Amino acid sequence: MKYLKVLYIQVIIGIVTGVLVGWQYPTFAPVAKMISETFINMIKMVIAPVIFFTIVSGVAGAGNLKKVGRVGGKALIYFEVVTTLALIIGLITANLIKPGSGVNYTPTTTAAATAVSTSGKTIDWGEFISHIVPSNVIEAFAKGDILQVLFFSLLFAIGLQRMGAAGTSILASFEKINKVLFNVLKIVMKLSPLGAFGGMAYTVGKFGFSTLAVLGKLLFTFYATGLLFVFVVLNLICRYYRFSLWKLLGYLKEELLIVLGASSSEAVLPSVMQKLEVAGCEKEVVGLVIPTGYSFNLDGTTIYLSMSIIFLAQVFGISLSIGQELTIIGILMLTSKGAAGVSGSGFIVLTSTLTALKVIPLEGLALLIGIDRFMSEGRAIINFIGNTVATIVIAKSENAIDMDRYRFIVEGKPMTVVADVDKQDNIAIFD
Predict the structure, then answer these.
(1) What is the tens place of the pLDDT at every residue in 189-209?
(2) Distance (Å, rounded) from C-alpha 398 to C-alpha 57?
(3) Helix, strand, coil shares of the chain as percentages rounded to 5?
């Protein structure tokens, strides 16, 4: 019975129970959706302030603005390279497995598809760039817009850093407030099994398993590609930088299960930031890379986008040339970054890309809507793992990680130097 007190065991029970309830009682779906959304909202209410106080205390406390610029530059280059690899892998596997071949589909126009098509056509780079700068910072915090909060936090940190010694008391207060926020998060995370239950019960109850019979090949191809990306591409990156992907995933098992149940990587954003700091990563690196990655390093979403385009082309019998597929890569390298912070960004970016290509009918989106929820869990998990690996890679490249502490906390190895580290006490959210 003692295992029932472990959070990740509780989350697993919540997921399994949710699947069974959604399967047997589909009418429970609206209530399950409310439960899931309430849990995610409880997490979202602390995301913006946690990002703000973490970045301000990290950047202003470090006092090295050149390092901040260097970390940001490295992160953006890394994000572009890795997401491009994800994009290419998605195209290759979709062409090899051909998940759209043999799918009989009569184009129909649904309200959901029409709404997505309309919103997708409105995204452009002018909106994206202007969207980064908030016209009202209070509104940015109220909406939980990560990019806008990140932008304001960096400016505030620079302003505070320029105050010198006069800003020390403000900085100390911010660090105390951040600890309070993580105590709030610790309370909220106790409810994560309930959130996972609601998320899975809603998905199964609302969409059922019938869609899987028609689009099961696409779902299989997507998850197989995601596993290939994580355990080959990301694993090779981890091996190059000399840390274990498996040990890291074991350290973050609670977050992975919550992401699976809630179908949202945002649900664990604050907790993974704290866990990486506990593991030895410097606060300013974590504060910059994780929030930025949630907008620019969406590996799972990128795989989904490239695969969906090839899938729809196969469904409609459209043979894409090498030139057209290279065009898809070029367009997605831009549009996959263009909907950061926008709700339902995966579908919106897909629509804007199809609109730019002018080859594949937009009506095909209706075919993907039914199965999208089953793919969102995979997208969220891959995005989460990709951003976690990115943070450690950038931290190692900057010598901004205590590897003795990391190996002790994450990999369970003995400390080679004396340090004041308590493995259990430091993992505050899940103790």
Answers:
(1) 888 888 888 888 887 887 676
(2) 19
(3) 80, 0, 20
- Domains of the chain, residue spans: 2-413+421-426
**What Å distances lie between residue 345 and 105, 349, 357, CA to CA?**
25, 6, 18
Question: What is the b/e burial string over 284-313, where b = at least 16 CB atoms within 10 angstroms of the residue's CB?
Answer: bbbbbbbbbbbbbbbbbbbbbbbbbbbbbb
Least reliable range by pLDDT among 19-33, 76-90, 267-281, 403-417:
403-417
First to last CA, the chain: 17
Does residue 110 have a pLDDT over 60? no
- Number of helices (H), then strands (E), belonging to the chain: the values are 21, 0
Residue-wise over 250-266: b if at least 16 C-beta within 10 A, else e?
Answer: ebbebbbbbbbbbbbbb
Neighbour-count burial of 232, counting CB atoms closer than 10 A to its CB (0-12 exposed, 13-18 middle, 19+ buried)? exposed
CA distances from 427 to 5, 283, 410 (A): 16, 15, 11
At the top level of CATH, the class of 2-413+421-426 is: mainly alpha
Question: One-letter amino acid identity for 103?
Answer: V
Tokens 């290759």 sit on residue = 92
Cα distances from 196 to residues 103, 256, 340, 383, in angstroms, run: 32, 11, 25, 18
Q: Is 336 helix (H, G, I), strand (E, B) or coil?
A: coil
Q: Which residues contact 365 (CB under 8 A, 6 or more apart)?
A: 113, 116, 117, 347, 350, 351, 354
Look up residue 114 and give its amino acid. Answer: T
- Checking if the pLDDT of 112 tops 50, the result is no
